[in-house]
Design brief:
It catalyses: O-phospho-L-threonyl-[protein] + H2O = L-threonyl-[protein] + phosphate. The protein has 447 residues and is α/β, with parallel strands linked by helices. It is built from 11 helices and 16 strands. It has a single domain, classed as Purple Acid Phosphatase, chain A, domain 2 (4-Layer Sandwich). The strands form 4 sheets. It has a 6-stranded mixed β-sheet.
Length: 447
Amino acid sequence: MSSDDSNNISPISRDADAVACSPSSTAVTYSDNPSPSSLPTVAPDPLSWPPDGKLCLEWIQHLMSVFEWSSRNLAPSAFPSVFPVPVFDALVLTASKILHKEPNCLQINIPDSDSTVVVVGDLHGQLHDLLFLLQDAGFPAQNRIFVFNGDYVDRGAWGLETFLLLLAWKVFMPHRVFLLRGNHESKYCTSTYGFEKEVLAKYGDKGKHVYRKCLGCFEGLPLASIIAERVYTAHGGLFRSISVTPSRRSKGKKNRRINLIPEANALCLGSLEELSKARRSVLDPPWEGLNLIPGDVLWSDPSMKPGLSPNKERGIGLLWGPDCTEEFLKKFKLKLIIRSHEGPDAREKRPGLGGMDEGYTIDHDVESGKLITVFSAPDYPQFQATEERYNNKGAYVVLKPPGFDNPEFHSFEAITPRPKVNPYYDFEEVIDSDEDLDLASMVTTDL
């Protein structure tokens, strides 16, 4: 199915023989009740790109089989033997073309009265937990829409596989699978928290090429979505208004360009129109200047303190209180805000807000609706330097008709045992969750 099939999307069965697409090897059929018997026991054939460029369910099941098997049986450097560079190039190019055409804020309309929406939080390269989540929630389908809320890579050891699998689902079902950007889909974070080194370890002399293509794809990821005109989703959350005033025109015929100067007024919430006009195609969203909205959407956090203020702990983005949640919901006639961005390590330092033991929290409960944080990486982070592991559950949110405003929370434990693998970053030196950012190093440079 290609991105041109928006008006011709057929229902999907999770049985591999329900589709007329046949890769070179039989794919594993993932069941509703995952068990060791559902995992591949022999080496699956390497992936090849379909001659017509169209993916099908069996191809994606084969992809999951390949990633599952290789994570347990191959050294990272052998990854190209099962997922060759030409296949990577074809997948990322196809997905990037779809993503770059989407608006900053997706308007996700519900096609059928029996459709549900699954909202997924941070995944952080925990491939095996993602495979379980997809089995537990049910694969994307005509009447089951998925919204992934960013942070697919870093910290975990299988960020590349996680991101590529989601890109494959996006290519297969572009109007049923939506991928939003997280703060870790950036050059700064991936250089600090392991994804860059992971890619270089897996693709060797082609690693820089693969990493560069991933960064370009990150730039195309939309920033937010509105589901059924009721639910706003974004990785970090709310954002400021960027008010500007024109400076004086220069005299003479030359240099007639009007320079815009940001107003030094008190912070106030931005509008969906401002969000739609923000420039998202930056490797590292800026923390100063006129293009602050992408950084706000990706890095901001809720607070129990009223008002809107700079997020000094992170050095980028905002903190917003329950009054701001109420204002945003009421102004845009919404019922829910669903965001992610904070795992158990971050939440243990946030007085007044709930922990992430169950994979979700209801942070604000106001007159017009609720603010929810969902985090889908259980037993996070994969590599922990603390004496005791957090042992948090992951969770995903299911929204159902008719209102899509009564969320169902599904918590789940981490898949164990994880394959043994070495970390790709010095996790003992970066225990904290994205704090004390080196802002100077976030200035984008050419690769």
